[in-house]
Design goal:
This protein is an alpha/beta fold and about 450 residues long. Helices cover about 30% and strands about 15% of the residues. The protein is elongated. The termini are far apart.
């Protein structure tokens, strides 16, 4: 490999891990730290050290591989003699070919939720090593790594490196370290010596860009409804402070979004010392009856009168109006079924329905604005938190979860209305909680859009 090529400390670390025989590597780095450049340098090193093994490069979409990696490769690999080929033996099979004949196959992995996990787009010839880029973009989480690992295991020394920007649910560090692999978080400051006018470059960053690039803090995607949420410790973020402990005397709440056999529930407790509400647990089961759902709730929480050690005490609850519909067989609504005693298959708590009493709270934009100001308010700080244990479970789990919903809950283009994608149920439950128990002392007028919003509107937070 050329010795005159300038590399930063991260890229030197990556090449060192490969030279010492690392099997799995996870890289979390903000924009500008040289992740893609590092992949290209590593491909060159592996092609030289393993001339008898081909490699693999995986992106969520084929277009991303061409756009994100192709332009960089032209400046790094092409001068070293690498060639891009769109076909192989007359068949479409994009790959990069090193001067010594080593091929790096360019694959995309995108499995819609309607397709079986067996629909593996990475199937093909065996390879000995590989790279997965844009890790947060894989909605299937570590499935893509497991599939890719199945391919590289054919090599004498299997190696797989997964790379991505900071994310609220970073699945790849766990995937790498659980097998004894290496893991690194990289700041864009690693390139400070190679970027002319670095101090001015940093000064031109927004606060959000500095948090992601310099401090490797996960950021919400562009257009996110609840972009103020920060998965860091209170008071700077929305994760409960170190040493926070639940006390049974804390007032507890249950917030439910009814789905057709896909309900979501949040268990929230009020901490007077922090003047904040803390999400301590969530449930997002699939294909369950109301009685099964009640049993799941019972295992983590109880109505105050039935409270026992090890469970959260619930004093009140709220659900959306969909729970009022009566089932044809039982002639009973979800509200009524949940209110039945535990012995009768219920939870023993009658939920309220905010929308029955306050018409102005039906407006989604009004409710979203209220939730946003609980997450973070310029004057009142962060008054909606989550325990680190609950957040870790939410961020690492599969399917619907509070953390995943935050990442995918975005506004419809040109509107103040969030788009629905099937992940939003926990956030809907949160909005019902705020509408019922944390609405402003003097509710704002019905939202009429930005142009007609009253200039007299003030946030009279409790």
């Amino acid at each position: 490999m050329p010795t005159d090529r300038t590399i930063n400390d991260f890229q030197a670390w990556l090449l060192g891990q490969i030279a010492t025989g690392a099997r799995r590597i996870a890289v979390v780095g903000g924009w500008g730290c040289g992740k893609t450049h590092g992949i290209a340098l590593a491909m060159e090193a592996l092609s030289r050290s393993r001339p008898d093994e081909d490699g693999m490069l995986v992106y969520p979409r084929a277009a991303q591989a061409a756009r994100a990696f192709g332009s960089l490769a032209e400046s790094v690999l092409v001068p070293l003699g690498w060639v891009y080929c769109a076909t192989y033996q007359g068949m479409q099979a994009p790959h990069w070919r090193a001067p010594n004949g080593v091929k790096v196959w360019v694959n995309s992995y995108h499995r819609p939720g309607t397709r079986d996990v067996g629909a593996n787009s990475l199937e093909g010839g065996n390879v000995g090593w590989g790279f997965i880029d844009e890790a947060p973009a894989y909605v299937v989480g570590d499935e893509v790594a497991q599939m890719a690992w199945g391919r590289v295991r054919a090599g004498a020394r299997p190696f797989l490196c997964v790379v991505g920007r900071p994310s609220m649910f970073e699945w790849w560090p766990k995937w790498a370290t659980e097998d004894g692999g290496a893991y690194i978080r990289v700041s864009s400051a690693v390139n400070s010596l190679f970027i002319p006018g670095w101090p001015q470059f940093v000064a031109g960053m927004t606060k959000q860009q500095q948090e992601e690039r310099l401090h490797c803090m996960p950021q919400s995607p562009e257009g996110a409804v609840y972009s103020q949420w920060r998965p860091t410790r209170y008071p700077d973020g929305n994760i409960a402070p170190p040493g926070w402990k639940y006390e049974p005397a804390m007032r507890g709440y249950l917030a439910v979004d009814w789905g057709r056999r896909h309900p979501s529930a949040l268990v929230i407790v009020e901490d007077p010392a922090l003047d904040a509400d803390v999400i301590v647990a969530e449930l997002n089961p699939e294909n369950v009856s109301i009685h099964e759902f009640a049993g799941m709730l019972w295992r983590i929480a109880r109505p105050r009168r039935d409270w026992t050690a090890g469970a959260y005490a619930i004093d009140a609850g709220v659900g959306d109006k969909a729970g009022q519909a009566r089932h044809e067989q039982t002639v009973r609504s979800n509200f009524e079924a949940l209110a039945r005693s535990h012995a009768d298959g219920g939870f023993g708590l009658m939920l309220t329905c905010t929308y029955q009493r306050f018409a102005e709270r039906v407006n989604i934009a009004n409710g979203v604005r209220q939730v946003r100001e609980r997450i973070h308010h310029d004057h009142h700080g962060r008054r909606l938190l989550m325990t680190p244990e609950a957040w870790a479970a939410s961020a690492s789990g599969d399917g619907v979860s509070f953390a995943r919903a935050l990442q995918s809950y975005v506004y419809r283009p040109g509107t103040d209305t969030p788009a629905k994608n099937g992940q939003e149920h926990p956030l809907d439950a949160l909005r019902y909680f705020v509408a019922e128990f944390r609405w402003y002392d003097e509710p704002p007028p019905v939202y009429m859009g930005p142009a007609r919003r009253s200039s007299r509107y003030t946030a009279g937070l409790r």
